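Q: What would this chain look like folded?
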Amino acid sequence: MRPFDSWDALKLLALILMFIDHSGHFFFTDEKWLRAIGRGAAPIFLFLGGFAASYRFKWDLFALALLMSVSDFLLTGHLRTQNILFTILGCRMIFAWLERRGRIIERPWEWYIGSLALFMSIFAAHYGSFGMLFAISGYLKRRRQHYPPALPRHFLILSFVTYGCYTQLFSQFSMPSLLLMVITLYGVWRLLDRLAIHDVQPVGIPPSLLRTAKLISYYSGYIYAFHLIALEWLTGIPF
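A: My prediction, written as structure tokens:
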């Protein structure tokens, strides 16, 4: 097992933000500030999906996405907006298609405009084309040698601004909750903007605990899928 690194640390942060978000959805429905803080989880997962070194199709992720859809259908009796795993897989498939042809994203700003034009995709899968903006941001940062130095940063900033506006439009957070969301998104932006993959060895943390953290990071997709399925059936509230 490779050492615990900054990639794993980001995924753990995303999981923490995700649990905060889901606690607000399933248990503390009047505490909108929990959901405001939780808005920082999806950008991390989507960004890392685009930042990945390889875009090979992950059959286990597809199986988890399908399992969640079947569970959701059995719970609600109808087909609803599909989960974020389908969004991540869709982004990876597009990038893999480019790589197989030896091509790269040549005009990122056209992709941004296209993502805005496809805004109705949010009703097909969580975050839809808005989520793809973060995957493209990760893609640009991973291949920054092909682009002007400032472009990946500017694209990431614009992605966060777009995401924040779209989230507020649908969530209608109060001013204090909106402020919490902005602070959270700013902190996540800073981390993603400065991302470099390197080993992380916190002083005083036992190696066994780091190995556990590593496993949690590796199986984050499984944790996402199974905990949501469990919470939906436990509470009767679809996500």
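Residues 133 and 159 are 6 Å apart (CA to CA).
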